[in-house]
Every structure is written in structure tokens, then in C-alpha cells.
Design goal:
The two termini are 12 Å apart. This protein has an 8-stranded mixed β-sheet with strand order 3-4-2-5-1-6-7-8, sandwiched between helices. By secondary structure, the protein is an alpha/beta fold. α3 packs antiparallel against α4, α3 crosses α5 and α8 runs parallel beside α9. The structure holds adenosine-5'-diphosphate (ADP) and magnesium ion. Adenosine-5'-diphosphate binds next to α1 and β7.
Length: 293
């Protein structure tokens, strides 16, 4: 797990991202690393798992372990505090041109994703934590997240062109500067994703999983983001194959497990438990990190 400052858990809803995020966080915390487990899923379950109401403020959960759940709205609020004046300056300059241009800039595609990445990048830069375990929103949104910084740059380039059409270059230098700063920020985010973020894909051994995992891995590779492990959750173990149904289901699962193993070399299987208890969280942790102990 060299150089991964952020471990991003991605996969469909309900496959075990939050559960596994917590197990991974417990591992790093127990190794003495200052660990933050962060959820940006609108349906977060970290609070349930820890039995503590987490909020957008970072709370201490135990020795070396901290947690937070943050919503898209809160992230936008923080971005406004940070860049609000600049946005206003840019907007105002466009305002008497044509309202559709204002709308165009203000509703830039993926502005929320851009803010989220900026928030996480700042967390890493602050060096308050050795590692951030990021429990993300279901897959579609994660993929959107990756392509946003470069789309945002394209959008800003276009905005500059539109702007230049209406104003003489020398009349509003500060606006060009602001747009350029935003571009630099997007470039920093792209670099951050490549250098400090790693993916752990989570799936279950079912039909759709293979297809979706393949897509997820392809997209991450395309964006040059390192893939650490693929974790297959809910794998039926021998000791519970005690009925025809369970035997059959285990057999079907096996095919999908094999397919996923063909996609990626570092695959971990997590057993299906009766329920998630503290003890089972530790079993999951041991399974994921058994090669590293
Ligand atoms: N290996 C497992 N065995 C049994 N139940 C599990 C396992 N992994 C997760 N669960 C349960 O499945 C449900 C969904 O898990 P969760 O981690 O919330 O998924 P996600 O974050 O991907 O939506 C939860 O009730 C959780 O306790
Ligand atoms: Mg979750």
C-alpha cells in the first residue's frame, strides 16, 4: 500500500463498502497510523456501524481512528466560503452580457465533484492524517468524479473564449486570472488523483458484479489511478453449504469469483457472515491484510 494517502472504496450500493471501509480503517489505526474514515455516500452507514452519530465535523472514534460523514451540500457550502468572492467576480463580469452565460459557468458540469475532490485534497495536504479511507457513493457517481477535473478545465477554457468574445482582453485581467487559478486547481486535483489516491473495488459474486467491476477497473486505469485490490464480499464458505440451496448458490458464486480473478491479480474474498459484529469486522480486516502481516 505504498504512497496511497487515500484509499477509495467503490462499488454498487449494498455490497459492503462501508463495512469494509471500517475494517480497513481499524487495521491502519491498530498499526499506529492516524486514520480518518470518511463517507461521502448520501446513504451513509458509518454512524450505524460505530453507534455514534457522525457529522461533517471530524470526531475521534478510538485511538488513532477518526470519522466523518459529509454531504454534497456541506461541501458546496465550504467551497462557497473559500471561493465565493471569486465566483461572484466572474459571474458579475458576465452578468450584463447574457444570463445564459452566467448559468453556464455557475452550473459547470461536476462542480460538486470538483469541490469534493478539493476537500479531500486539502485534508491530505493538511497532514492531519496518515491515511484517509474514503467510503464513496455508489459507482456511477465515483466514475463521474474521475472525469470531472478535466471536463471542468474544458468548460473553463470555453468560458474564457466566450468571455473574450464580449470583452476586450485588457479590460478584465482579474477574471482571466481567476479562471486560470481554477484551471490550476483542477490540474492539481488530477495530479492528486494519480499520485495519492488508490482504488479498492468492492463487489459481490453475482452476475452484474463482473461486468461492473470490469468497467470500474477500466475507468480507473484510463484515468491512471492505481487499483489496489478487488474485494469480493459475501462469499459463501464451506461450513454453511448445508443445504441444496446453499450448495447451488456457492457453486454459482464460484464462477463469478473466477471471472473477477481473471480481471485483476490482487483479489480478496470475504466470507458471508450471519451478521456484522465487531469480531467479524476484525476477521474481514485480517482477510484483507493477511499478506502484509
Ligand atoms: N460479509 C458480510 N456478511 C454479512 N453481512 C454483510 C457482509 N458485508 C456487509 N454486510 C451487511 O450488508 C449490508 C450492506 O453493507 P454496507 O457496508 O452498508 O454496504 P454499502 O456501504 O456498500 O452500501 C449491511 O447490513 C452490512 O452489515
Ligand atoms: Mg455505505
Amino acid at each position: 500500500m505504498k504512497n496511497c494517502k487515500v484509499l477509495m472504496l467503490s462499488g454498487k450500493g449494498g455490497v459492503g463498502k462501508s463495512t469494509i471501509s471500517v475494517s480497513i480503517a481499524l487495521h491502519f489505526a491498530s498499526k499506529g497510523k492516524k486514520t480518518l474514515v470518511l463517507s461521502t455516500d448520501p446513504a451513509p452507514s458509518l454512524s450505524n456501524i460505530f453507534g455514534i452519530n457522525l457529522s461533517d465535523k471530524i470526531s475521534k472514534l478510538k485511538e488513532n481512528l477518526y470519522g466523518t460523514e459529509i454531504s454534497g451540500d456541506e461541501i458546496i457550502k465550504r467551497w462557497n466560503e473559500k471561493f465565493g468572492n471569486e465566483i461572484y467576480t466572474v459571474m458579475r463580469a458576465f452578468a450584463d452580457v447574457d444570463y445564459s452565460i452566467v448559468e453556464y459557468l455557475g452550473t459547470a458540469p461536476g462542480i460538486e465533484e470538483e469541490f469534493m475532490l478539493d476537500y479531500i485534497m486539502e485534508l491530505v495536504k493538511s497532514k492531519k492524517f496518515d491515511i484517509v479511507i474514503w467510503d464513496t457513493a455508489p459507482m456511477g457517481n465515483t466514475l463521474k468524479l474521475l472525469s470531472m477535473p478535466s471536463k471542468f478545465i474544458t468548460h473553463l477554457n470555453f468560458a474564457t473564449k466566450v468571455y473574450t468574445k464580449f470583452y476586450k482582453r485588457n479590460s478584465a485581467k482579474s477574471i482571466y486570472e481567476i479562471i486560470d487559478e481554477w484551471k490550476v486547481l483542477s490540474e492539481q486535483i488530477i495530479k492528486f488523483l494519480k499520485e495519492e489516491v488508490c482504488l479498492m473495488a468492492v463487489c459481490i459474486p453475482e452476475n452484474l458484479a463482473v461486468e461492473q467491476t470490469e468497467k470500474l477497473l477500466d475507468e480507473f486505469k484510463e484515468h491512471d489511478i492505481r487499483v489496489q485490490k478487488v474485494i469480493i464480499n459475501n462469499v459463501i464458505q464451506k461450513d454453511i453449504q448445508d443445504s441444496k440451496f446453499m450448495l447451488k448458490k456457492a457453486e454459482i458464486q464460484r464462477q463469478y469469483v473466477e471471472k473477477i480473478k481473471n480481471l485483476h491479480s490482487d483479489v480478496v474474498e470475504i466470507p458471508l457472515f450471519e451478521e456484522i459484529t465487531e469480531e467479524n469486522l476484525i476477521k474481514i480486516m485480517r482477510e484483507i491484510f493477511k499478506d502484509e502481516i
